[in-house]
Specification:
The chain is of the alpha/beta class and 216 residues long. The chain contains eight helices and four strands. The chain has a four-stranded mixed beta sheet with strand order 1-2-3-4.
């Protein structure tokens, strides 16, 4: 089975188990679901700075004031996913699972929350309950693979700002667009290899010409 199909099958299985398990058994499945059922923000176990978190809470509050309530889960490592740690690095799949888990266990028969959901991992964004064009916009935001907890908070804040802008209700910008890392590091070795190859070609041509002149 191709890797993509295996991942989809595993995600579907995890989602099915989450639905079939009693609410009490699901409660400790993944930490973010326990927090977001009653709060708009889950911060990772590797705690970011208080200043960054305060700024993010302000951005989320401003979005809510603009009638754009949103819940945000920041996932720094597989530890933040609890029983579904296999979904680390797959923000879209985890967002879909988390969206279905946001049901108040105190309300029998309650449906999952319809509030927009943003998940941020070093692999990028995942969303739930947002229009397709907004989903595409957020998935286009690059999150550095080595992003620190503070950087992930910044990416989440920028994502909320972009979400509000895409819905036609922009809020004051607090966070800048994340800067992708690794591009320059990959380019430099490539340029070195190309330069050495060009130098080798020049040396070969010089040697061939020198040999030809000697033979004549």
């Amino acid at each position: 089975m191709p890797p993509v199909l295996r991942l989809r099958a595993a995600t579907a299985l995890v989602a099915l188990i989450a639905v079939l398990l009693p609410a009490g058994a699901r409660a400790n499945g993944d930490p973010a679901s326990d927090v977001l059922i009653s709060a708009p923000l889950y911060v990772p176990s590797a705690a970011p700075s208080g200043e960054q978190v305060t700024k993010l809470r302000g951005v989320i509050a401003r979005a809510r004031s603009a009638r754009l309530p949103v819940r945000v889960a920041i996932i720094d490592s597989s530890r933040d996913l609890g029983a579904v740690s296999n979904l680390f690095g797959h923000p879209r799949e985890y967002a879909e699972l988390l969206r279905g888990e946001l049901v108040d266990p105190a309300e029998p028969g309650a449906k999952s929350s319809k509030e927009p959901l943003l998940v941020v991992m070093p692999a990028g964004f995942g969303t739930g309950n947002v229009p397709p064009d907004v989903d595409r916009k957020l998935r286009g935001i690059e999150v550095p693979a080595d992003a620190s907890p503070d950087a992930l908070v910044g990416a989440a804040g920028y994502g909320v700002q972009e979400y509000a802008k895409a819905r036609g209700r922009p809020i004051p910008a607090t966070f800048d667009k994340p800067e992708a890392s690794g591009g320059g590091g990959a380019l430099v070795p490539l340029l070195i290899v190309l330069g050495l190859g060009a130098l080798a070609a020049v040396l070969i041509v010089i040697r061939i010409r020198a040999r030809a002149e000697t033979d004549t």
